[in-house]
Amino acid sequence: MAGKHEQLASTIIENVGGTDNIKSLTHCITRLRFVLKDESVAKKDVLEKTDGVIQVMQAGGMYQVVIGNKVTAVYDEIFEDFPVIAGGGEVPVEEDDKSAEKNNLLNRLMNTMSGVLMPVLPVLTAAGIIKGLMSLFTALGWLDTTSGVYMIWYAVGDGFFYFLPILLGFTAAKKFKCNEFVGAAIGGALVYPAMVNIATTLPVAGSLFAGTPFQMDYFNTFFGLPIVMPGSGYTSSIIPIMVAVYVASLLEHAFKKSLPDMIRDMFTPLLTLVITVPLTYLVIGPVVQGVCGVIFLLISALFNAGIVGGLVGGAIIGGGFGVLVMFGLHWVIIGLGLSSIAAQGFDYVMAAGGIGPMVGMSQGLCVTLRCKTKKCRELALPAWISQVMGVGEPLMYSILIPLKKPYVINILGGCIGGAVIGALKGKIYVFGGSGLFGLANYINPSGDWSNFLVCCIGIGVAMVAEFILQWILWDEKAEKETFGE
């Protein structure tokens, strides 16, 4: 039986060069993300004129076809209609692919971050919403932290983040093409309670870099080598598990090639784990945490350098984050934000970066009320509703970018809101929902409302400024030229 999206799926595959030109295929909330062997074969102009396709982007080594909220259905239709694209969207890689020319360090980093985080993002968002709402309900006095309702729902939200390294170990292993359960086992070792609580169960055995901002205490040793642990262990951490699984993938591939057939299946995971886990605790974890610590210090120094520092930093992040999202280059920022929350309990960068969906809500409402042409109205209302729910690509690609000036106004609104939040040292405490659901991200779990009020001031200023600017600067002539009468 023909699927609902069969024609769209077929048209997309045909115009990216057919299955023979597809190296891999994944998807995010609104985009099909192709890695093509030769992007010059794809027919961008045909795709952008196809009913159901909003925009085509080429960034981060990927050929991204933006189709909006139905992306999952179209993705599933593609794999049903084109079974040759097998193995989770991957086809054999040829060493002489032309796409390898574009596989530079930045592209590889972005692709890795998105490939590891993307599969868990919907549930990560759901867990963040639940955790944020629990903080909101307890702060309002609607729930008590000892109630069964709170304990069960908070276990869902906080439990996901606590054991996140296990889940990322699985997705990272899939990305690096090694045993997924080896990746999960490494993540499990990083969040094993006896190791997480080592600082509370054992006395300090010594310190590294004592007397410096990078002082690291250790509480035990491994064959005489210090086991350095961050304060809360590696629960909720992002980057250490990614690096660890990458190293594990190299070891696994080496063992598979070198071990005799008789012992390969048993000894490959055994040797990979007994080498990788100690290496992660002794080297990978401390080095990654040290690098992240330097980045956190620089960011904190900027946002704490008086009003000017926070204003400048917030304006850059608030206005620039949406640009990174447009090109799919925002994953490193998200990864660092999650790492900052895990290490410090809060993050400055995503507090300013999270202003975008709020700005889009205000702008989308203004566009919906202001536009006159039939096609623009048909696009604006559903795009605004999607924006309220936290998905901004439909508004961005169907209206803002085609009209150009509204996109500049959107960036300006983000700069204004980000500047206010940065100047007032606003923070985000959980990476959760977006749009209206994103408000809960700013609530301090301790019950202190001051940060929430600070961020609401920044959001309010940005939304009001965005609505006024968009209303005054709306260009009816450009609307008619773009969308017809």
Give the spatial strand order of the biggest sheet.
Answer: 1-2-4-3
Annotation field: number of helices = 21
What about the largest sheet?
Answer: 4 strands, antiparallel
Distance between the termini: 39 Å
Say how many strands there are. 7
Shape: globular
Strand content: 5-15%
Query: Which secondary-structure class do the elements indicate?
Result: alpha+beta
Provide the succession of SSEs.
HEEHEEHHHHHHHHEEEHHHHHHHHHHH
Q: What is the share of helical residues?
A: 55-70%
The mean pLDDT is 84
Structural commentary:
By secondary structure, the protein is of the alpha+beta class. Helices cover 62% and strands 7% of the residues. The protein has 21 helices and 7 strands. A 4-stranded antiparallel sheet has the order 1-2-4-3, sandwiched between helices. Strands 5-6-7 form a 3-stranded antiparallel sheet. Helix 4 packs across helix 7 and helix 5 runs antiparallel to helix 6. The protein is globular, with a radius of gyration of 24 Å.
Describe this structure in a few short sentences.
The protein is of the alpha+beta class. It has helices spanning about 5-15, 45-50, 70-80, 105-115, 120-140, 150-160, 165-175, 180-190, 195, 200, 240-260, 260-305, 305-325, 330-345, 350-355, 355-370, 375-390, 395-405, 405-425, 450-475, 475-485; strands at about 20-25, 30-35, 55-60, 60-65, 205-210, 215-220, 225-230.
